[in-house]
Design brief:
Elements lengths: L15 H8 L17 H11 L12 H13 L3 E3 L12 E4 L11 E4 L10 H6 L11 H9 L5 E4 L4 H9 L1 H10 L1 H22 L5 E7 L12 H21 L3 E5 L8 H8 L3 E3 L8 H8 L4 E3 L4 H6 L2 H15 L5 E2 L12 H13 L2
Helix pairs in contact: 6-7, 6-8, 8-9, 9-10, 13-14
Amino acid sequence: MGDLGHLLRQPVQPDCEGLKATLRRQGTPRRVYVMELGQDPEVKDEVGRVFGLDSNLDPAEPYYQLRREIAIQCFLGYDAVRCAVAWPGFPRERLDADDSTQIAGQSRGVRKWMPEHTGPIQSWADFEGYPWPRPEEIRTDAFEWLARNLPDGMCIWSNCHNVFEQVTWLMGYESLCYALYDQPDLVDAMFQRIGSIYYDVCKVLVQIPRVDILFGGDDMGFKTQTMIGPSVLIEKSFPWHKKMAALAHAHGKIYLLHACGNLKDVMEPLIEDVRIDGKHSFEDVIQPVTEAKRLYGDRIAVIGGIDVDLLCRGSEEEIRRRVREVLDICLPGGGYCLGTGNTVANYIPLESYLIMLDEGRRYA
């Protein structure tokens, strides 16, 4: 990694109102706004270390991590800080695997993976005995601190749901596929219980000051199609997304969906029935973000789309050229925020990530 001091030298002032106007497609923005589903902790650690962003912070201070998060996101040019509720969540086992990341300072050593074949709930007895999280266990201390300490112009976005994904994690993707035919009543109960729990989370989030964006992740597809039949998603999962979107809209919030994979068969109900405000996660081999903008950009925002493979292996010239191409097509009229095609994974070279952001700042 070379000297990074030439990157991100053009200052950006937080402007959450501008970000929200962009997501609502209220005209071409005055600058490029950026948004990510997430940045791996190792990437943020490197940003903090390389640019000395936490040198004046006290690690012993109770809200050190939140102060550091604000410093990092402001430096990188984001207008919102991510925060999630503190609660027990949905306990489950994960599999360990070596992290093969070869970038110095960005490997975590071990990666966690969800088992595909099975999960903690395989029967009605498992369902009844599972330690389901309860609304009264939700804590919002971090949100309350952020609401008091965020810089002017910043807001909070929170992840709020992954209904289908949580079903696959608790049953196992393979087990779910069998259960759709062998135990349909159990599958219905899983969607009902998980959806209602996430709806309770949303009812808390919409009441918290400065939480302006609900941004959930619910991976539903792979390279060629949805992971289960589109009709099953539309019937069992989408009603919960619709309820959460309606709740967000009733409180003046924006409702975004991150979903990986090929969703061509369910995009219309997501847009017209669920009423998502924006879609995130685009992979060039499935659907380039520029194509999504052409197809859906008059009805929803599209977010990210600078392909992760390009960021991992592309040259500076290639990355800058692609960023300009995407902005030329997606920025006019609003409804586009610059970002990666998925997340800022720890195997993306830090310099490549910063080049993407830097080109967005230079764009005019």
